[in-house]
Design brief:
The structure is a homodimer.
Chain A: E1 5-17, E2 20-32, E3 35-40, E4 51-62, E5 64-70, H1 85-97, H2 103-120, E6 122-128, H3 133-146, E7 149-153, E8 155-156, H4 169-183, E9 191-193, E10 196-197, H5 205-218, E11 222-226, H6 230-239, H7 246-251, E12 261-265, H8 271-279, E13 283-286, H9 288-293, H10 301-306, E14 310-313, H11 325-342, H12 352-364, E15 381-384, H13 387-390, H14 397-407, E16 413-418, E17 421-422
Parallel strand pairs in A: 1-4, 5-6, 6-7, 7-9, 8-10, 11-12, 12-13, 13-14
Antiparallel strand pairs in A: 1-2, 2-3, 4-15, 15-16, 16-17
Amino acid sequence: MSQERYLIQGDFISTPTPQEVAIHENAYMSVEGGMIQSIDKKKPDIGSDVQLIDHGGQLVIPGFSDIHLHAPQYVTRGLGYDKELLPWLNDYTFPEESRFKDHAYTDLVFNDVVEDLWAAGTLHSVIFSSLHTDASITLMEKYAKAGLSAYVGKVNMDRNSVEELSETTEASMRETERFLEAAKDYADRDVLPILTPRFSPSCTNELMRWLGDKVLELDLPIQSHVNENLGEVAWVKELFPESKHYLATYDDYDLLPQSRAIMAHSIHNTASEMEMFKDKDVLIAHCPDSNSNLASGIMPAGEMLDKGIRVGLGSDIGGGNRLFIGYAIESAMKASRLLWALSEHEHRVITFAEAFHMATAGGGSFFGKTGLFMPGYFFDALVIDDRRFTKYRPLSVFERLQKFVFCGDDRNIVTRYRKGQVLPKPEWN
Amino acid sequence: MSQERYLIQGDFISTPTPQEVAIHENAYMSVEGGMIQSIDKKKPDIGSDVQLIDHGGQLVIPGFSDIHLHAPQYVTRGLGYDKELLPWLNDYTFPEESRFKDHAYTDLVFNDVVEDLWAAGTLHSVIFSSLHTDASITLMEKYAKAGLSAYVGKVNMDRNSVEELSETTEASMRETERFLEAAKDYADRDVLPILTPRFSPSCTNELMRWLGDKVLELDLPIQSHVNENLGEVAWVKELFPESKHYLATYDDYDLLPQSRAIMAHSIHNTASEMEMFKDKDVLIAHCPDSNSNLASGIMPAGEMLDKGIRVGLGSDIGGGNRLFIGYAIESAMKASRLLWALSEHEHRVITFAEAFHMATAGGGSFFGKTGLFMPGYFFDALVIDDRRFTKYRPLSVFERLQKFVFCGDDRNIVTRYRKGQVLPKPEWN
C-alpha cells in the first residue's frame, strides 16, 4: 500500500510549532508513497481506483516519539523510587542491566519493550540498550521486525560502574565497532545506531576521545545525560576539572555534533550551557516522570522553548515508570505548573500545546519529516477512538486531544500508521 | 456467602500504620461474616464444608478509598488545565455542574462514574455531587446498586457562583432536608449522606450556621475544601474577617466535628491550622494530581504524618484527571520528592509505604474497620493479577506492590471483595 495513493477521512490535529495548533476537522488527507500530499476540507475529486479510508469521527494525531529510555530497565521501572539517582543506579539499575548478557532474558524482556512501545503508539524511539553488543543488536532486530523506527545505542561505560557491569576501554571500542557493523543490516528499516557514552562519569577521557573521533569520521548522532542531579553535577566537576561545565565534557570531545545530539534531563543548567544547547542545536529529552521519581528537580521547559531550544519527551524507563507518552505530556504540564507555583512565578508554565508538541514534532525532529501533518511529511499517525469521552456531549477537537492525553491511554489507540502503512501488532517467533 | 466462613489463599500486603508494612506471603486468611478472623502461614485445619478460594500467586491488597472527588466533573476532567483554581471553576466547572439538573444527563454520567470507580478498585468514596438534590440521590442509588460504599454530599452554595448554578439560602436548607430524608433509604447499604458546604466563599454565614446546627443535631460528618490556592486564601480572609484563619471559618460554625470532617487540599496552612487539624482529628484529603494540574502547590504530607494528622488520598476529579488511586499514590510520591528537591530539603519526602497507607488505611479510617488486613477488619480487598510484572524473574511482595502501583492500572485488578463478598461489575437497567 505504501506506494499507492489513498485518502483518509478523520479529525486531524497536530502542532507545527510549540505555539501553533493545526486542526482539520472532518477533513480528507491524501497520502502517496507514505507521504502527506494535501489536507482538504472538501473531498477531493478522485478516481474510483483511489481507496478512501474512513476514520470519520475519530481523532488522528501524529505518532509519539520517546527520545529517552533504557530498554534493559523495563523490569525494574517502578522500583526503588525511595532513592536518588546515584544510589538508585548502584542498587537497582546496574545489577539489572548486567543480566542482559543472557540471551534468553534479553529476548523475553525486549519482546515486551518493543511490543509495549507499539501498543503505546510510540512510533519513534531513541533508546539506550546495555553495554552488551549482542543485546543491543537483538533490540535493533525487534524494532525492525515491529516496523518501528529507532536510534539504538550500545552503552559505553569503562569506569565507575559495578563489577558485573563494566568493560575495559579497549573492549568498549572493539564492541562499538562490532555494533556499528551489525547495525548496517537494519538501516533500510529506519533502525539506526547512535553513539551512547552513558554519562561523563562512566567514560574515561580516552574513550570519550575515541567516540568523538567516530562522530567526526562517520557523522554519527549521540545521546547522553546531563545535569540531572546536583550530586552528579558536583561529581562531574571533580572528574573533569579542565571542562568549563558538565555539557562541555561532551563538547570538549566533539560529542555534541550539530543538530545530532540528544541530552537527557538538563535540569541544573548554567547560562553558558543554555547557550551551548542553542548553538549546537541540541535536542533536549525532557523526562519529567523520572525527574520526579528520583527527586532530581524540574527542568525549566518554558525558558528552553523561549530560547528556541528544541525539546522532546522521554519516558526514561526505568527512572520513569510508564511507557505511554501521554503520561509524559501530562507530567510535563504538571511539573511546569509546580515549578511556577514553587518558584513564586519566576518560571513560566508551559501550555498543553507546547507539551503535546514536545511529544510529537519536538522529538520527531530527530527523525526527519515526521511528528506533524503537513504536505511533505510522512504519514506517521495514531487513530484514537475517543467515543468514551465524547458520548456525553460534543467536545471540540482540541478538547478531545486533552481528554485522550489526560484521561486515556493505549486502550484508545485503534490504528497505527508508519510511513503510510498500518502497523500490525508485532509477532515474535 | 457473606455470613459463611471461608478461606482465601494469596499474597497479602497492607499497611497498618504509615510506617508499617504487613506482608503475609502465600498465607491463608479466614473470613467469616465478611470479617477477617485470622491470617495464617499454615493452612488451618478446617472442615470439608469450608470453601477454599485460591488466589495463590496473586497479590491481595486492601480496596482503595478515594476521599475527595466531584461526580459532576467527570466529563470535564482533563480540560482547562491551562488555568488556576478560580478561573477554572468559573469557566469549566460551574457551567458543567449546572447540567445536572437534567436527569438523563445525570444518569448517563453517574453510571460511568460508579462503574469506573468499581473498575478502578475504589471500594469507598467520599464524593461531592452538585447542588441538585435529585442528582445527589441518583448518585446514592448508583453506589447502592454497585455495592460500593460512599459518603455522598449534596453541595451547598448560596453565593459567589454563576447564575445557572446557585440556590437561595432558603432553598439550600430545604433541599438539604430533602436530601437527608431521601438518603435514609441507602444507609443499610453503607451509602450515607455527608454535609457539603462547597467551600467557605460559596456559603453565607447564615447557611454555614444552619449547617453547623445540623451537624450538632444529627451528628453528621462534613466535607469541604481548605487552603488550596493562595488567591482563594486571600479571598476567604476578606469574606470572613472575624475568623482567625481559613480553617476557622468552618470551626466557627461547628463544621469541624471531631474525627468526622474531611478537608481537601490543605496546602497553604498556618501553624495554627496544623494544630487544629490535629486537635479535631480532621482527615486530610491529599489531592496531588489536582494540585499540580491547577498549579496550587504541594501539600507538606510528611509534616502532617509527623504531627499524627490523618491523611488519605483524593483523585479530585475533575481538578484531578484519573480515577485509579494508584495514580494518586504515584503522584503523592512524585510531588513529595519535588517538594523536597525544590525546597532545598526543608521538607521531607514520604515513603512508598506512607503513600500506599494514605490510599487504603488512611482514607479507609473514615469508614470504620477497613483499609488493612487484621482480625476484626472487614475483608475489603482487591485481587491483583501481576504476572505481567513477575514473568521475567521473581520479585518480592513489596516490589510487586510497587510495580502494580507504578506500572499497572485497573486492568490488573481481577476481583473485588467488599465485606467478604465478590462485587460483580455493576449492571444498569
